[in-house]
Amino acid sequence: MAATFPSVSQPSQASLTDSPPKLTSIKALAAELSGLTSIPPGYSFQTIPNIVNDEALSVSEANESIPTIDFSLLTSSNPEERSKVIQDLAKACQDWGFFMVINHGVPESMMKAIIEACRAFFELPEEEKQEFEGKHVLDPIRCGTSFNVSVDKVLFWRDFLKFFMHPNFHSPTKPSRLSEIALEFSKRVRQVAREVLRGISESLGLELDYIDKALDLENGVQILAANLYPPCPQPELAMGLPPHSDQGLLTLLIQNEIGGLQVKHQEKWINVNPIPNSFLANIGDHIEILSNGKYKSVLHRAVVNNKETRISIAMPHGPALDAVVSPASELRDSVSNLPVYKAMKYREYLEFQQSSKLDGKSALERIRLTTTKDYV
Predict the structure, then answer these.
(1) What is each CA distance from 156 to 10, 232, 244, in whole angstroms?
(2) I need a labelling partner for 248 at 20 to 30 A (CA). Which of 33, 157, 216, 342 fits?
């Protein structure tokens, strides 16, 4: 039997400041806090100094635009067009680690449908959602709150639903249309991800199919991670998700019209304003490992607001669970020919990262073999 979240009784203003919160979904908690002006201390990052890395970094006011990659040119039969977009992709990976993917061929109606289907899941009664709570980080379906409540010192203002879509497809049975929509969406998104990874492989000077073959992407892991960030009475004290990099090779993300994602770029946080009908793509830790540090995964975080609910759907794409990921020999340091990261099975990395505190790039640092500043 799945464990249940204790219900939250109607709190008084005093109880919000004097007692720790009972564990519940943020959606339920936000409803309980409706009309109040403060959050329980267990959700306030003021209570534990420096819990969020780089919390004090300023948010850039400049109109800085994340690079854009035209997917249609990646699949172009015109060599000059493809060569140009591969150069653009290399620059985007080196300079930002993030980029928008446009003209990808996934219908806008399908992107909106999956967002609404996930919204419907979060609107289910609490006891129905708890049927899919899950126990282990590699359980095919999991839902819950925060990131990892067993180790989080402060809880995040976030509910989540995660399920594996490849190599074997899983989905909650509720709401009724979620599974059908997610199955078709997963197929279309995976095609986009594999083609982008072919471009990244080529941009690194590797064979077009190097990543695909070396990491067995035919059996590669594809996960759908839906995030719900309800309005927060004190958004300046809470955090949707702290600064972190993504495990895996490539994450493709969509969201509703509400902003909240910030990317760390040149020591400042940049507000991300996605182009309509685009995917926001970012390279993961395993591209950094494979490229031996040439391309780096980038810190990003989710902030919250006090007015509107944000929904995002992130789709990480990784190697096969049993694939061993190590720096490509062709990309090792030309002077020492040494790898910067040790080889590690993807399953082991995924289990470690998902069961630990979400703390910057700590999972990647765990397998770093050198502190050479050129790779930091």
Answers:
(1) 20, 11, 13
(2) 157
